[in-house]
Amino acid sequence: MSQEVDSTMDVFKDKDPEVKVRTKKMMMWLIIFALVMLFAGITSAMIVMNGSMTWLKIVPPTGLWISNVVIVLSSITMIFGVRAVKKGNSSLGFTMVLATLLLGLVFTYTQNMGWKQLSAMGMGSSQSTNDKGLTVTSWKSLDRLSGVYGQDYYITFRGEKLEKIDNEYYSPSDTGRLKPLGAEINGKFNAAAALLAVLIYIHIFHLFFGLIYMVVNLIRLKKGRIDQGNWISLHANGMYWHFMGILWLYLFAFTFYIY
Description:
By secondary structure, the chain is mostly helical. The protein contains seven helices and seven strands; from the N terminus they run H-H-E-H-H-E-E-E-E-E-E-H-H-H. The protein folds into two domains: 43-124 and 190-259, Up-down Bundle (Four Helix Bundle (Hemerythrin (Met), subunit A)); 147-188, no CATH class.
């Protein structure tokens, strides 16, 4: 009965199999293009704000480095999974896709761990109680940072990397230390950390669509609905997953080393 329902719902039932392949690939490319535009907008905002604001340069924490390794491994297992199904080895394909799913969950965990490491350094939000007894959440300013200056982070002002001496900031060109810049730094909104949090969690949000699609395809593999003759859904899943991995590696390089 379920096979009859599946066949009636298949709009490609009486079409050339190549039509189904081309259509699903095109749909996935359109989704990828939309995501490129979304993240291009966020990174463009970082470029503009970096040039016009007091900006925090962050050294990537251990959690984010681990996530880089995990996302690369997950792409490798996905490649092996799709190849196995195309060669008729659905059992191996199922195992490899399941491994990809688990690595995807580990990636999400390490991303969250990385942000928590940054939060422990004074980034992120804090809660306080106002005079009416209400809990107020606010984003921490640059003077709330902890960690070792120059090792864990540093601050740029008007395009210059500031020097920190006795808890005061100076321009490197101010050799006589005559013009402290603390008043320009303390209390300023930590835009760099805010945008980094946006990038991490918006990426995770969209990554979850790939994980959900993966669960669906694992069920299809188990039921035999994805096999050597019908692999395009898994292939499209792989396209999305590889893109999300490449996207994160680009965002990592962009955030921590380019800007």
